[in-house]
Amino acid sequence: EMFSTPISLPSHFRSCELRWQGCNLGNRAALPRTVTFSQRKGHDIAFRDVRLRRTFFCPSGILSSPTHLSVSASLNVPAATAAGVSVHHKILELKTGDGITINNITPQIRGFLQSTGVRDGQVLVFSRHTTTALTINEDETRLHHDIFFYLRKLAPEGDDHHHYLHNDLHLRPGIPEDEPMNAHSHLMAMTLNQSEVVPVMAGELALGTWQSVLLLDLDGPRNRTVYLQVMGI
User: Same domain for 130 and 227?
Assistant: First the structure.
């Protein structure tokens, strides 16, 4: 048998449902009708919709068989305003070189973070192209060449031995006149990340000693854009 009833919650909880479950509910009136979540306050929540679930064991003697009381609550906290949380956006623009290039965009990200005044939170970095990718790694010249070799071995440029259907430009109506034969660049991008998230601690990017945020352009030269979002307090 299942019995459901509304219960009272603080104003920052949007909804809640209380359920008793058991073979014989016995004296329902003896069960509590109000549950207070004093350990969770509205200003502790930084997300729009956070669902909490708590299970309370009923006192012995109230129910004639073992059972439990389960509470589910949903918080409704406005994004970008809860607890002073702020969200900042920026489109980073850069021009890349020929072929495959690795571009360290950490200084630009750090500069944008400092301009927001956010002390604790995170930075989202998002690639806005199908032939670019993001990674967090060491920015070292010889490692760059190792990465180039690895990617070209993974997805070689189209030739007599590697034919890509995407490169059949005559079979793709409506493409621009300067459309490149870049199927290999798309395949490279699919094996890499399109976004990275970096924690922010005390107003600084929480990167390791040798870590940098790198944008890989796999089909340059191009004018590229990267979306940045800083969220925190």
Answer: yes
Domain residue limits at 34: 2-76
Enter the pTM of the model.
Answer: 0.65
User: What's the rounded Cα separation, in Å, for the pair 115 and 204?
Assistant: 12
pLDDT tens-digit profile of 37-50? 333 344 333 333 33
Q: How many domains does the chain have?
A: 2
Six token digits for residue 228:
């940045």
Q: Decide which of 29, 54, 76 is a domain's last residue.
A: 76
